[in-house]
Amino acid sequence: MFLEKNLAELTNVSVKPLTYGEQMKAQPYLLKDISISVAEGEWVNLIGRNGSGKSTLARLIAGFGALHAEGNVYKDLSRFVTGQVPVVLQQPDASMVGSTPWEDIVMMLEQHGVEGIRISSLAEDALHRTGLLARMHQPVETLSGGQKQLTAIAGCLAVQSPMLILDEVTAMLDPDACRHVMDKARELNRRGVTVIWITQKLEELAPGDRVVALEQGELRFDGEAERLFERQSPGGRSPCEQLGFTAPYVIQTAWELEALGIVLRPLPMTPEGLAKAVTQL
Description:
The chain is of the alpha/beta class.
């Protein structure tokens, strides 16, 4: 996909909690010397262990939170309804205020000051794009966890957010719901929606994905998913291992084959890809 422009650029950005005076100097950095850009239409996987700075980076890009940022932060929000990017979290119930998906999105649009004449069409379009149109008047307490996450995503689309920032949205879902939410997010991305997908589940990475990894507030990796798992030498450690992550089963199988002298390139990341690579040996 041709990426026309950057929606966000950070250049040598460091972040501390917003405090004052001598207390500010004593605060540790939440992010340190981060330089990153997010292009229009891009899918970015943001990974890192707990406390690595993932959510802080997401809040900085979104424009939320009491943060003290040093460096240059650029965001192109000029073409969108609001000046902030909504963030979808692990537990959508915490942010849902309406009794149905339709009501929740309409109330969100009203809170963002959208003209009344536009609200109905924006809400209907967002529900259609997330596959929830048939459930628009269903009570939220009867929705599945995945459907609630899609309702939250629909709200972001309705306010014409410049991007979707999805912060571990599958963490509390069962495998079927995870796949459903992921499939919908991927579909939206193929249609041009910019997605920042924050996760600790490396099996959610897809071949060719861009992966950005943080560790203790510092950028440790920025490249294609395959490179994250590549061992540069026999017995060496991949960036994934250096960051303390457990690789998906498919990757571990490929590593075992490498130890036997069977090197698969490009590195398969799905069971189907692994089976195909093995049959072509």
